[in-house]
Every structure is written in structure tokens, then in C-alpha cells.
Amino acid sequence: MMKVIILLLLFIFPYSIVRAEDGSKLWLRYVSVSKDVAHNRSISIHSKDPIILLAKQELVNFWGKQSIELAVDRKLTYLKDGFKITGNLNRIKVIAHEPVGLLYAAYHLLQLQATNQPVSNLNIEEIPSFDIRILNHWDNLDRTVERGYAGYSLWKWDELPGVISPRYEEYARANASIGINAVVINNVNASPQILSSQYVIKLKSLADIFRRYGIKVYLSVNFSSPKILGGTKDSDPLNPEVILWWKNKVKEIYQVIPDFGGFLVKANSEGQPGPQDYGRTHADGANMLADALKAYHGVIMWRAFVYNPSSEDRAKQAYQEFVPLDGAFRDNVIIQIKNGPIDFQPREPFNPLFGALQKSNEMVEFQITQEYLGFANHLAYLAPLFKETLDSDTYADGKGSTVAKLTDGTLRPARKTAIAAVANIGEDINWTGHHFGQANWFAFGRLAWNHELSSEQIAEEWISMTFSTDNKFIDPVKKMMMGSRETVVNYMMPLGLHHIFAFDHHYGPEPWGDQEGGRPDWMPWYYHHADTVGLGFDRTSNGSNAISQYRPPIQEVFGDIQLCPDQYLLWFHHVPWSYTMKSGRSMWDELCYKYDAGVQQVRAMQQVWDRLEGQVDQQRFVEVQSKLKIQSRDAVWWKDACLLYFQTFSKKPIPYDIERPVHELEDLKKIKLMIKHHN
Ligand code: BDP
Q1: Strand 132-136 to strand 122-126: parallel, antiparallel, or no bridges (unpaired)?
Q2: CA 31 from chain center: how many Å?
């Protein structure tokens, strides 16, 4: 019967590889070794450490080459949780300072094998760039995910701790395979309930699984927890009763989870409670929690994502709030700063807070989930975005003060360095909704491990492990991925335009958006400033003067309309429609060509993918193909919406050699998507 079905399938899909692939294995599609191979090869280590036993098991199961000897050397502190691999055709030796280093080495070897790299003459030393490589889940306790587009949360709180889904371990393994060693389990808009004793026990069951993979759990906490859960009069960080409540809560957590990582806090931001509710500062709040955690070596990640609907440019507010507090934070507080000064746009200049804080620990927060890049519908490979920020030169300590070097301990020594990203993972069978969304999870892990890796290399590793090692497949897919983020920038927000998304879901375009009584800083007009003169936000000294937060020479470059790179032009300048761009075109024409380029580029991505039919299993082929169709239609929607709307100000024709709009502006204004919104 089975044979008949297979023959039938071959007849229906003559070009397809029949092996079913649904993306659930991610990049971990290792093949088990045969008995023969296992017989001729030894994997040796004498240890009962559960992490080491796991490292050994992975190699026993999947390593198909020479014998391997594993060892922990406690003297090699400089390796941190990295590893050394040396060896020849017959024997490989792996040394690590920490047990988890051996696990990372095991995955490193398996990756070399899976990507057909030579393993006969190895001399590898890997030391991670950041100490804490952490995913931030924006998962709510009711299993909805704020800005998560791959279904409901992985964490089935109602079943825990009684029922343990096998996915918890698969998730931990995937993270460990790329070096991720920490997870914030819940949304930054945190429910106080996560700190109730009942949830702490549930959390323990996850921590117990993750521990074997070298992963620590962290929690987002609600600053009002003492009052809401503990019945204290208020949650003032200087109130002794409040201080005691946190101390006891921390003690309770560590009794149950001895390696608990610490807290992530969103305070006095977008309606969340915080120390300012009591006339205290961010430092007062952070330090109170840091003191409670100190004895356990716990860490506070305190977010700098704060802004109010004031007359000040939103892009300036985090800097204004935090720079005066520099030096006031305890050494186990790390200020967690979004890569750009607004909010995870497809492109932002780096956040000027990087390097502006001289005496406080800083870390970058990226967003893997594509809140502003087409959700799990659009293909956008984000390694180039991550690298753009990490490689940005802030000039904080002179030339070469990149964001990476300011945060990885090179320029500013820190007790612990860290890097975070908001996860795109959910209950979907392929974990991330779009198969290519997996690449962004992978890329974040790889860059957190080594920020010097190139986007190309990471893409190549991911493609060859996830799909195929055939160069005829790798090359075009890599090229498609490499251009994909710029493509999204082109059809969503070229030339530095930003935040012109529909107010309530951030998916589609709404440059005309305005809500009566709504916060101005949540409205597109606040950002694009379209008028009969031109387009863009004047952040020079004639405008909000946000450029003053950057150091020379960046300040002069961004602040001068002639010098400012095109990609940030409308971020920093209000530019006349007829202004002559570097290309020689008027700004209006340039804008039109950019939107059109975005549309054409998505179509080219479709062509690349369609040509690859038969070189990839049919299920993933069709699923990606369908998503590209959505992306293609959305790109036209963005182009038409933005050009038709901005044209009402520019009063200029859309250049006649580009594709004509296929929508009416008034129809586009009526589109209402019933997409889940957060709080
Ligand atoms: C914005 C999101 C919002 C988050 C917020 C944050 O729209 O859902 O709660 O960031 O980072 O991007 O706190």
C-alpha cells in the first residue's frame, strides 16, 4: 500500500523530493549514524555532568567521522563558555572551560559536518562575543503573544508543571545549537501573576529542562507587583515594605530555581508602572531590584524604551531620561537599549544612547519578530539589519567605537555583557510562521556568539543546514536573502521615512492615519511631516535638534542635508519635493523609484524561488511560494498607498516609466484589518 502511495506521489509531483519536511526540525536536520560508524568511532569523556552527557549523546547519535575526546579544563578561564577543537583524521580533541562549552563544541562539529566542511585538520578556538545571549519572549500568560506572528505561545501555562510538551526541549536544543544561553519567558508588558508562587513552580519545570542546554530563565516583572500581589500600600522603591517584598520574592525564586538569571523591566513606558509613579528615578527602581538579586548573582535588564507624548521629539527622550542618571546604576544593572531611537523600524540610525552612557552597562535589544517588517508574511533576512547597528561607529571613545565594541566589553569593561532580541517563535509547526523567519532566530544567535561573522556566512550556514548543501540552491537563495531587508525598506519606508504604519496593527501602510484624541507620537503624520513644501522630520538644529545627541563627526554628517546618507535623509531632514538628490533626480522622483524598486525586487524574489521547485521538498516550497505572493501584493499596496497619499502634497506626476498605481487612494483608506492588537 505504502509503495503505491509513494509511486502515486511521484507521479503527481515528479520533481519533488518525497521526504516530508514541515520545517519543524529547523536547521537541526542531522542524520543518525549507522551502527557500523558508531562501532568504529569512540566519543570519550568521563563525567556525570548532565550537560556534558548531553554533548556526548549528540555526538554519539550524529557524529559520523573520527573519534572524539572531550575534556573540561578549569584553568582555561579566558575561553569563558567557548571551546577549542584540535585534531586530525583519526582523533579530535575538544576542550572547554565550562561543561556547556563542550555542548557548543558538539553543535559546532555537527554544523561543520552538516555543511560538508573539512574536519580532518581542525584548529578552532571560539569565545563568545557576549556573556548573556538572550531571547525576549513577549508571551502573555493567556498564551497570546504580543507582536508574535507564529501562533500562540509555546508555554502551556495551564498544563505546567504537570504536562511537559516535547517542544520545550526541542526549543532549548535549537537555542543551544546557536549559543543562546538565556530566555526571558514572558512579555515586557508583564502580568504581576508571573511572580505568584503558583507560576514560579510552573517556571521551575521549564528551567529544569533548559538547564541541561545551558539556558537560564529570566522574568519580565511588573513594577507594581508588591502592591498587586503582596498587598503593600504602594510599590515605591524606597518603601521598606516594598523592598522587603522583593527581597522575599527573589529568595523564593532562587530557592526553587537556583540558577535563575534575573529580571527584565519595562517601567514608566507606554502606561507600565514604574518608580516615577512615586517621584523616584529609573536608577532608584533598578537599584532596588538589583540589590535584591545581588547575593544570587542575578542581573537586572532595565529598558531604556521610554517616551511620553510631550512636545519633545520621541527620538530624543530615552537619551534625555537616562544620560543624567549615568553612574547611578548598580553594576548588576544593564540598560537595555533598542537598536534605534524610535521602535524597530525596518531601518533606523543607531540609538544615540549607545556610548553616551559612560559609566553604565549597556546592551542592544533587537527585534527578531517582524512587527514592522510584514509579520511572518514577508521574507526579510535581518542579519544585515543587526550588523548595521552593531557596526555603527558612535565615535563615543573616538573612531572605531562601534555599538558592538561598546557593548561587548572591548571598550567598556562590564561585569557581564549581554545582547537581547525579541523572539519570533510560537506554536506553529515550523516555529516562526515563515520558513525564512527561522533564519532570523538563527542569525541572532550566531551574531550574539560572534558579531564579526558576516551576514553572508550566516545565511549560507543556515541555508545549507535547513534546505540543501547544493550550491545551485545555496547561491540564489543567499542572494535573495541578502537583498530582502533592503527590499522591505524600499517598499515600506525608503529614504529614512518611518513609522507610517497603520496605528493599530503595524502591518499595512497608513500614512494618512489619524485618530481623534490619539497620542500624536503614535500617528504617522508625527513622523513624515508631509506638506506642500516637502517630506521628512527636521531633526537638525532648525528642528528638534535630535542630531545634537550624536557625536561629531556623525552629528555633522547626519545634520547636513548634503552629507546625510540617502537612507537617513527623511529621518533627519524635511526635504523639499524638488530637492536634487545625489542621483540627480528630484526627491519626489527618487521616492517613486524606490517604492517601485521594492515592488520589482519582491517579484524577482518570486522568480528566484519558483525556479528552485524540485530542489527543495514540496511542502516548504509551496509554503514559501504562497508567502511570497502575499508579500508581492503587499508591496504594491504599500507603494500605491504611500505614493498616492504623498502625491496629494507633492502635486507631481509619478514618473511615467514606472508601474502605474492599481488602487484608488480612497479605497486604500477604507482597508481595515482585524489583526490582533496588543494590550
Ligand atoms: C513596541 C510594540 C509594543 C511593545 C513595545 C515595547 O509595538 O507592542 O510593547 O514596543 O518594546 O514596538 O515595549
Answers
A1: unpaired
A2: 29
The mean pLDDT of 656-679, rounded to a whole number, is 86
Ligand 1, residues 137, 140, 144, 147: which to mutate, most atoms within 8 A of Cβ?
147
Ligand 1 center from residue 188 Cα (angstroms): 8
Whether pLDDT at 18 is above 50: no
| 112 and 147 part of one domain | no
The CATH number of residue 48's host domain is 3.30.379.10
Q: Give how far Cα 20 sits from Cα of 391, 621, 623, Å.
A: 40, 11, 13
Report the CATH number at residue 632. Answer: 3.90.1330.10
- Strand 83-87 to 534-535 pairing: unpaired
In a shared domain, residues 286 and 325: yes
Asked whether residue 642 is assigned to any structural domain, the reply reads yes
C-alpha cell of residue 662? 492599481
Last residue of a domain, one of 83, 110, 126: 126
Atom in ligand 1 nearest the alpha carbon of residue 188:
13
Looking at the domain assignment, is residue 269 inside a domain? yes
Domain extent, residue 595, equals 489-537+574-670
The residue type at 430: N
Q: Is residue 387 part of a domain?
A: yes
Q: What pLDDT digit, counting tens, does each position of 509-560 carry?
A: 999 999 877 889 999 999 999 999 999 999 999 999 999 999 999 999 999 9
Boundary (domain end) residue, out of 91, 126, 161: 126
Same domain, 528 and 399: no
Q: Is residue 121 a contact partner of residue 352, using CB atoms and an 8 Å limit?
A: no
Q: What is the 3-state secondary structure (H, E, C) of 496-559?
A: HCCCCECCCCCCCECCCCCCCCCCHHHCHHHHHCCCCCEECCCCCCCCCCHHHHCCCCHHHHHH
Q: Which atom of ligand 1 is nearest to the CA of 679?
A: 8
Per-residue confidence at 273, pLDDT binned at 50, 70, 90? very high
Distance, CA of 397 to CA of 541 (rounded, Å) = 24
CATH number at residue 382: 3.20.20.80
Are 588 and 653 within one domain? yes
Q: Does ligand 1 lie within 6 Å of residue 678's CB atom?
A: yes
Grid coordinates of 234: 504602594
**394 in the same domain as 280:** yes
Place of cell 556568539: 449
| 105-114 pLDDT per residue, tens | 999 999 999 9
Q: Let me know if 76 is exposed, middle or buried by CB neighbors in 10 A (0-12, 13-18, 19+).
A: middle
Prediction ipTM score: 0.99
Could you tell me if 323 and 180 lie in one domain?
Answer: yes
Pocket test for ligand 1, best of 184, 187, 265, 305 (most atoms within 8 A of CB): 305
Contact 201, 161 (CB under 8 A): yes
- Give the pLDDT of residue 515: 82
Check whether residue 266 and residue 377 sit in a common domain: yes
